[in-house]
Design goal:
The chain is of the alpha+beta class. It has one domain: Jelly Rolls, CATH 2.60.120. About 20% of the residues lie in helices and about 30% in strands. It has 3 helices and 11 strands; from the N terminus they run ααβββββββββββα. Strands 1-2-9-3-7 form a 5-stranded antiparallel β-sheet, covered by helices on one side. Helix 1 runs antiparallel to helix 2.
Length: about 200
């Protein structure tokens, strides 16, 4: 199995998981295992969804469930790029495909200012991390590499580009944002014509 087939099989597997109406711990456990299988191989992400931008990290939508139960996104980090401190408001899974990234959790201090909390998590290819309001939802993420691109694959329990979320400035409080997506087209997961031709020839 190579190419876009890996992503298609992941999407089908995630649909089957959610069709069973699992609770969040099961989604994070079994969905995390599915994502770990996907990012264990780095031969399937189409090049247009792996392109960095010299100024900003890119968030490319790869797939969104028609009922917006989940979405799959490639995050492309240029050297040294980072997010602000932010939340998600829904469950999420982050799988490292290429390069490395560092995620630092944050929590409020006595004055309501958001400070680093706990040890940073260093993700390398094949590793998966979970976020959610239940297990920890506020963090800052950065490319761990100063001289090369890193790519992580994220799965969220919503159409994440259309979710009202928040950033957390150092001086306290929070600011609303909606991330959107960097791409205007999606990868074609559903053209199985070559497989069918090969099977019937």
């Amino acid at each position: 199995m190579t190419g876009i087939t890996r992503l298609r099989d992941f999407v089908v597997g995630f649909h089957r998981l959610l069709d069973d109406r699992p609770d969040e711990p099961r989604i994070l456990r079994e969905g995390g295992a599915l994502l770990a299988q996907l990012v264990a191989q780095d031969d399937w992400l189409p090049e247009p969804f792996a392109r960095p931008d010299p100024t900003y990290y890119q968030q490319h939508l790869l797939y969104a469930d028609a009922s917006e139960r989940f979405s799959v996104v490639s995050f492309v980090w240029g050297p040294g790029q980072a997010t602000p401190v932010h939340d998600h408001t829904v469950w999420g899974l982050i799988g490292m495909l290429r390069g490395a990234e560092i995620s630092q959790g944050y929590g409020p201090d006595a004055d309501g200012c958001w400070q680093p909390q706990g040890a940073p998590v260093h993700l390398r290819p094949g590793q998966v991390e979970a976020v959610s309001p239940r297990v920890g939802d506020v963090h800052r993420v950065r490319n761990a590499l100063a001289d090369q691109v890193s790519i992580s694959i994220h799965v969220y329990g919503a159409n994440i580009g259309a979710v009202a979320r928040h950033t957390y400035p150092a001086e306290g409080g929070r600011k609303r944002f909606v991330s959107g997506y960097s791409n205007a087209v999606l990868p074609n997961l559903w053209d199985r014509s070559a497989e069918v031709r090969a099977a019937t020839s």
